[in-house]
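Example record for the data management plan.
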Amino acid sequence: MNPALAALALLLSAQEPKDKVTYQDHVLPILQNHCLGCHNADKRKGELDLSTYTLALAGGSSGEVLQAGDAAASPLYKVVAHLDEPHMPPKKPRIPDAEIAVLKKWIEGGLLETVSGKARPSKPKAELALLKPATGKPSGPPAMPEDLVLEPGLRTVRGETVTALAASPWAPLIALGAPHEVILYNSETLDLVGVLPFPERRPHVLKFSRNGSLLLVGGGQGAKIGRVVAWDVKTGDRVLEMGEEFDTILAADISSDHSRIALGGPGKTVKIYTVRDGELQNAIKKHTEWITALEFSPDGILLATGDRNGEVHVWESRTGNLFHSLRAHKGPITDLSWRTDSNLLATSSEDGQVMTWEMQNGQRVGAWAAHDAVCSVEFAQDGRLVTSGRDRLVRTWSGDGTKEKEFEAFEDVALRAVFTHDGKRVIGGDWSGAVRVWDAAGKRLGVLPGNPPALAERLEADAKRLAETEASLVGASEANKAAHEAAAKAAADLAAAQKAAADAGVAFKAAEASAAETAKAQEQAAAAFTAADAEAKGRSADAAKKGEALKQAASAQAAVSEEIRKLQESAATALKKIQEGDETQAKLLEATQKVAAERAAGLVGLAEAAGRARTEAGQAGAAESAARKTVEERQAALKAADAQKAASAAVLAQAKDAQVRAAQGLDAGTKASAAAADQAVKAKASSDTATGALASVKHDIARWKAAQFNLTVHAAKRDLAKLQKEHDRLAVQAQEALSASQEALSAVKAGEKAFEDTGAMLKASEPSLAAAREGPAKAKAAHEAAVKTVQEKEARVAEAGGFLTKLQEAAKASSDNPTLSSAAAKAGEARDLLAKDAEAARQAATARESDIRKAEAAIPGAEQALAQAGAAIEAAKAKLAALKAASAKASEQAQAAQVPVDAFKPKLDTGKARVETLRAEYLKLKPARI
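Corresponding structural encoding:
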């Protein structure tokens, strides 16, 4: 291409905005400059690799970072644009606005990989997909409504048929379908906890997601509209809308990983949508009748569907391929339920049967007649089942079909029944709109209104109840006061009786101790008297014995003395006779004196013995006298002890009698006090009940008032959402204007470069023209030189030809000279070589003649190129001016577009502040749980 034309084409391409921004051409260079240092195949910070298109879309450990069509919901864009933390790149200034604009345009253009690639569809605003299927209890507290609206949107004269009923798998939460709304109740307190609007008209199916965080409703209006909606259970935000059916939806469910939604109805087609982009994944048309029930298996692998022909099919949920066809029911299928392990499916039908099917071979493993016609069936977490039927009954069953409990009959057909999350309660609803709550034993615990009163009605009713409760509390308080006064008096009387009984007990114990002591003293006195008497008797006997011994000693002494006297007389007579000369008497005298001496010696001993006997007799007599005195004293002491014992016995008898009387008084006082205390307890219980009832009424009134105020909060939130939407719209316009301004500025820079390039090309074209004009002369000179060379070479050929002729003639003349023949041959070869060289020179001369024509023809082209380069630089100059003007205009438009954003921001801030203020006021009004 002509260089000047190429420059002009470059200029024109620079001034045209790119319609398609792609990863490969535009985004990857930005990522290479700013992001791939940390997010590449080797480093993968945060498990995010942006080095390839596929890996960039896959995201990192925190999930996807790009949302097709929605830059504001794309984490990558928000952190790069410093709209969210952490700012990227870390510890560096924000990347240029122009590059941020490229990223934004790429995201909103559908995340194209290449120019020929296909744009990805936009996702729903809420990312619902889970990292893995929710097959067990989720971590943390189960999802429960938080400050939802409690005002019913539609108040009818009577309740509506219960066509939809569901229980959260993990929380005490019940969802009840009503016209134009879904009503939420706490299954333990039976309190209303939320009202979710469903303007699509009537809910026909309600399903909690397997982790309990989402509530799915399918319904609509016959022959007009059918839609599936999902709410966030905590916030009440509508996070999903899917299906644009032209008839109501009768069956719907969401997979355990929140990635797919299946629905069906009168259209006879099972439709499976991907939540990510809302695209129809599969449309299964095997059913020949209305689809009345469907449910994903808890593990998300299978999908079971049933229709009005009684057919049940099980599908691979991701592929839509048929897994099993289960044909045994003789009537329309009314419900399906999977056991938590995904291995067993329960089906119910109007044929009155409940059947269970194992999934390995698709065989029926159980079947029993549950009702005249079964309307619903549901597995509990523990494998039990609950059913409802046209016989107006709700029943529970063991996993093998053994009936466990039959609950009180409804007034009309029992359409729906479910277990609560813990399996301890059963909720059932009928055709008339009645919804009852039973415990597992069958006791009715309460009802759930399918047509709850408006808040104003509740406040009016509670105001009347408040007056009645206050009056009741006054009476109960007075009765409680009187009962407590009576109890206090009875307690005082009882205390006195207890003191008297205690005193009597003390006196009795003292008398008993005194009596014991006197008895002991009497026993001791009696013992002492007996001992003294025995001692006196012993002493008397001893004195008598000692007196007898004295007598015997005195008698012996007298006998010896008499014998001595006689011996002395005999000795005196003998002595006299001896003196008289009778010598014969000498031996007699000697013998008599000897005996007398012996007897005298013996008499001394007898005298000593008599003395001792006399002393002992005296001592024994004195001891006997002392003993007699002691006996008299002990006898007097015994008499006194007997008198004291009798007195103590009398006192003990009186104390015992007093104790009996005190015990009787204590018993009477105890009974009276117990009766008074019991009456006081009852009176306090009545007072506490009245106080509790009053507190409950006040709590309810405060709750309803807070709920009324919460309507203002939600209205402010809706207003804020509108303001936010308008602000976002203006912000998008401002961002688009800024992007256009930045693109226009980039176009100006490209135009300036193109202008510089065309100027350089113009300068380069002038010497090219001069060279072109000199070309013909140079070509002619070259041609003339070539012709001269041809002439010279042709002359050499002629000369060589003449020499060859001469040699040939000589060789012919001298045929016998081989040298001449060889020389002639060599000369021929030389002439041929010279002829070839001459021919080459002729061809070169011909080429030089063509060069003359080419050189002459190049002159107009060079002249035209110069003219075109001149025209191109003028066009580039004009276009650059136009681009500058357009850039200035785009800059003005960007500034002008930012003005309403800045002007609108205070409104948005005011709206946010109002919501926060109202929210804070609501939290003050909201009573604490009691």
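Summary line stored alongside the record: Residues 1-18 have pLDDT under 50 and may be disordered.
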